[in-house]
Each structure stands twice: as structure tokens, then as C-alpha cells.
User: Fold these one by one.
Assistant:
Number 1:
Amino acid sequence: MQRSAALVFLLSIVTCGIYLIYWYVQVYKEMEQLTGRTPTGNGYFIDFLLTIVTCGVWGIIIDYKISIQLDEVLVARGLKPQDSGMIVVVLDIASYFTAAIIYFATSALQQDILNKVWEAGAQTQPPARTY
């Protein structure tokens, strides 16, 4: 579903990252709806636990895989891939030194790409929401 990338970023900051838990759950559902699989092949809860156990390292892998999967969806719809995989990895690593603020930017970037997928006319697009 389309969401404002700026609002994803802002809500992530205001809620100290708690909004991202909800955002990732929704993105997992949407990616599974679009491709038939989650970004890692695992359920969200398993990936969430792995992220905690690895002190966020698994989260970097998840973001990379989300970017790769988004590119696959874009190409399948005849659109140019965004090649954001390395950008999100660099931003995620940099977030370890910026009190996670840059990590929120990664989610906003991925939401912007996901919005392009929905704008391209995803056949199974869920209803748009305003948040």
C-alpha cells in the first residue's frame, strides 16, 4: 500500500523506532502478496528475533533482501530497478554511529520504492491508507 515515505521517517523518529515494527510487518505482508514469499523466506517474527539476537546485523541483511525483492518486482512490471541494495546496507551500517536516525531513512527509501510498485499498478494492491 502506498504510504508517505516522509511520514514513515517522521513516525519512526517520533516513536523511537516502534513504528518500524508495524511497518516491517506490513512490508512483509505486501512482499508476500506481490511475490509469494517474504524477503528472507522466514516469517516476520523469526526475522525479528534473529535481528535482536544478532544486535541488528540480521536487520541489515533483511533490508538488503527487501531492496533486491523490490527490484525484482519492478523489473517484473517492466520498470527500471532502483538498485538500492548497497545504499541501504551503507545506511544501515552508518546508523550504528548516528543513534539509528539513518536507519529510519532506509525504511523511508524502501517505502518510496514500494510506492513506485503500487503506482505501476500492482494487480493485488490493498486499499490506500493515509498514514
Note: The two ends are 10 Å apart (CA to CA).
Number 2:
Amino acid sequence: MLALVLFAAVVAACSSQEPAAPPTGPTSTGSEAPPSPTGSSGGGTSNPPDLADARIRLVPVAELEQPIAMAVRSGDRALYVAEKTGQVVALTPGSDPRVVLDLTDRVSLGSEQGLLGLAFSPDGRFLYVDFTDGNGDTNVSEFAFGDEGADPASERGVLFVDQPFSNHNGGELVFGPDGYLYVGLGDGGSAGDPMGNAQSLSTLLGKLLRISPRPSKGEPYAIPPDNPFVGRDGARPEIWAFGLRNPWRFSFDTATGDLWIGDVGQDAWEEVDVEPAGSDGGSNFGWDRLEGTHPFEGSPPPDAIPPVYEYAHGDGSCAVTGGYIYRGDRIPDLAGAYVFGDYCRGVLEAFVPRDGRATQARALGPRVDALASFGQDARGELYVLSLAGTVYRIAS
């Protein structure tokens, strides 16, 4: 899903375009370009941390209405938080929260619907948001952004995707180290991928997309020329990776460029996937033939990429909330570890990637109700967002 229970505990819980040239400008989602890679793809750094010594606590930062996603903007001190109900709020030290975009009259509010994701262009000039409209369909819109916030009159539709069911909408937006916009879409919903979307290259559902979001040659966005399915008959050229059930939250490691994906499972297994930096794309992560490494429906694809980490439902678990490789300075014992959680269980967890495997997996201690998302600031420090209302900073 997100699991069918996701959000409920809080609420009750294209056609082909011409290829695009790579964008120019800064390549990170924060105020600085990412450092050069320091470790092997998918394997973390050469000097992994010892998680046995890691101790963390949670520092409340703000109380908002169902905070669900966070982004930072180049050259800007604020943290920008999307509320599921439709507003984007700026959190600046020493100031009250300030609304910089209001879509409350535009979004649908089913359990897995709403304003679901946001990202700033690398140069900070544009804000992109992902939301479900009154019909429950996915919209990615662009707004010009300045000192006063988003300009509502500047809205430009970038991407529209019809949603056959109300759940599994994805919603994550992330600019990669390559400057392109990555968009996460679930398999269309219901349960068990009844339409076979995740393994079909003819639909955008059940995929990660990679686009250049600025207008090009009369189209609302452009296709990077090195996308893996450009020019392939019957395949959508926007697709970067497929075989995903609901890639609710994903992130790039700012040190290595590896792409980490928390893909929400069906009834039994949750998984964390990784695509190493330098990949040519086209990875098949297996759904709905596989749930994690376990057969689900039909024959497993021979090219399926297994998860780096999976865990069974139990102990209250229901839906993985993907996080980040920690690259901050304040918690040295966590440096290079992947920090994540589970929406229902709520316990912050971590493991150390090494040689394509998850090692030293352990619970870090603190628990967050309705753990919807993580965030990362420009210095690599991490935040946790609870749909119950609190935005926390992870501290030592």
C-alpha cells in the first residue's frame, strides 16, 4: 500500500516528447552541490559506522496539520513542509510557521490522497508539488517561487496521471544529482495490482519517472535522452524504473548518488531497494511477481532486483516509510547509515549498507506516531514528520 491503513489512523489515524538536454545549475536539493562519492555504489562508505554506539533523541520543531513531506530550497534557511490537507508551510528559525502555498480547495482527502510531495528546482526558482485533485487523479504542478512564497497565478501543470483507485498514489518528488526530476507513482491501487500496471511499460503507474520538468517544444516537460526506454515501441519514455508497488518515499545519498527507495508491501513484506549511482536505469524491482524476495503472483522476472533489506509484518508493522542515508555532522555514530521507519510501528530504525547488503540493522529507540515521512536539510541533518502533527529533528 501506502497500506490501506496509511493515513486512516490519523484521519479517523504523455505521450512521447522530444529528448531533453540535461538541465544546468546546482545538482543537489539543498543549498550546496553534493560532495564527490566516497564509497562504492550501494555499499556505503569505506569506514562504516558502528550502530551499536548510536544514540538519538527527537527534538520537536513545529506543530502543523498532518505534515507529510519536507523540502529545502537553495540559499534559503527555511524548511518547507507540505501538509496533507493542502498547504505548504515555511519553518524559519525564530519565526512562526508561514503559509507559502494553499491548495486546500483543490486536493482530495481520502486516506492516501491529498498534497503528497514537494521539491524545489535546483536553482530555487520553482516549486513543484504532487497532489491528488477532486477526482483523485495525480497532478504535478509548477509554481514560480520568490521571497513571498509561491505565486498562485504562475501555476503550470507539468504531469497528469489518471488514478483508477484511490490508494497507491506515490507522491514523492525529488531532484536527482543529475538535475532531473524523479516522480514516484504507485501501481494504481486496489490490492494485488489487478491491472498489472507495475510490470507494464505502457503505463506510468508502478514506476519511478525521470523528466526535465520545464516546457520543451510545446510539451509541458521533456524526456532526458538517456532514459532507458526512449525509442522503445510500446514503452513510456518517462520511465526510469518499474516493478514498484508504492514507492512512497525515496531519496538520493548526497555522498554517493545512490538512490534509496522504500517500497510499501502488500500483506506480508516491506522492502528497501537501492539503485547504485551511475545506473543506466530500467531496473525492475519485481512487483507484482514478487513481494520483496517472495513469490506473489506469476513467475518472478529473471531481471528482478532484490531488495537490500526486507522485513515481515509483525510487531505492529504495516508500511515502510523510506528515509535517508545520514550525512550530517551532529551524530557521528550514525554517519553512513540508512535511517527509516514503519508507518504503523513508528520506531526509528537504521542499518549500515555494505557490499550491497544491509548490516547492523537495529532499532534506534524513539517512536513516532503515524510516521509519514523523513526530511533532510542542506547540512544533511534529518527530520521526522508525523501525521499526528509534529515535525521533529533527529538529534544526539
Note: Residues 14-43+64-325 form a domain with the Neuraminidase fold (CATH 2.120.10.30).
Number 3:
Amino acid sequence: MYAVVQAQGRQFRVSEGDTIIVDRMDGDVGSAIDLDRVLLIGGEAPQVGTPYVSGASVAAEIVAHQRGPKIDIYKFKRRKRYRKTIGFRAEQTTLRIQAIKA
């Protein structure tokens, strides 16, 4: 069985035991969270939500908080001697999917 959930503005296809990386979420490492925005539950009898499947949720555990890879941003305007370099690292949370409740 798998599910498509919406977390932090993005959609993820998950099944039990999967690990996903999302934008930073509130909570301590090891705490359990409940993702209630389930768009689809797949399997033998798939359920499609309008927009969410009623009564469905996905239980997950926060595994770690980390920072993503560095993204270099370079701004340049020709003939104006304008050059600017900025670095950015996104705050991320790793989630382990425990169960899909339909």
C-alpha cells in the first residue's frame, strides 16, 4: 500500500518504511507527527481524495534535522561592474514513515 501526501507544500509518494526529506518541521528528533493531507491511497482498491481523502492519515517519525547542500546564487549586470555572490543552505527534516491509516 502507498499514499500520496502533501507536506510543506510539496507532494510525496510514500509507503511504510520510506524515508523522505522535507522542509524544516517543528518537533524534536524522535517525536511522532501525523500527516493528515492525504491526496491518494493506492493499492488493491485505490481511494482518490477531493482534494483530501477523508479519515486518512500517515504516521511519521522525525529522524533528524539537518541543512541541505549549499546553493550558490550569482547576480550580474553587464557593463555596470555589479557582481554579487550569495550562498544559501535550506533547513531540512528527515521523516520515516511508520504507518498509513486509511
Note: The beta strands are 2-7, 10-15, 19-23, 32-35, 38-42, 47-48, 57-67, 71-77, 82-88, 91-101.
Number 4:
Amino acid sequence: MALSMKSTTSTWESIKPKVIYFAIGLVAGPVLSGMFGWQVMTGTANEQVRAGIVDQQAVFCAANAHTETADTSKLDYTARNDLAKKHAVMPGGTAADFDVVSACAKKLAG
């Protein structure tokens, strides 16, 4: 009986470092991958999607504004902003998003 008890203890002693390293890896892995930017957090993904949507809507706004005024770069800031407000309302929407108006006005300036 003493022999079997010794083999169980020696088995645990040989596995123990691997279990500890595994536990450390479970904790350190997500922390390190988050620090190095290998993970995309929900907030970051939402910001990137929002930026893409605003940019796409600004492209549509600028295209519509160019049909009304061919050379928008000669307009002053207020006129470009008013033109952007007019064309930044997306189909089905009731009001223009401030970010879309701002991005559209920047596109009309250049």
C-alpha cells in the first residue's frame, strides 16, 4: 500500500508545475493579448463601425450637394455647413446627424 501512495504523490508532483503554468496562462493570456491589441473590444468595434457609417453617409451627402452646387470649395464655411445640413438627412430620417454634417462639410471643402 505504501508503494501506491508514493506513486500517486510522485504523479501529482510531476503534474503540479504543468497545472500551475496552465492556470497562469489562462489569466495572463487574455490580459497580454488585450494589451498588445490582438483583441478587439466591443466598444472599439462599435466606434469603428460608427466611423464607417458616418463616412459613407458623408460621401452620399457630398455627392448630393455637388449636384446642387458644382464647385463647393469656393463656398465659405457657413454656406458649406448649410449645404451639408440640407443633404445630410438620410432617406427615411427626419434630422441630420451632427457627425455626418461635419464630415460632409469637410468633404465639400476639399
Note: Residues 1-39 form one domain.
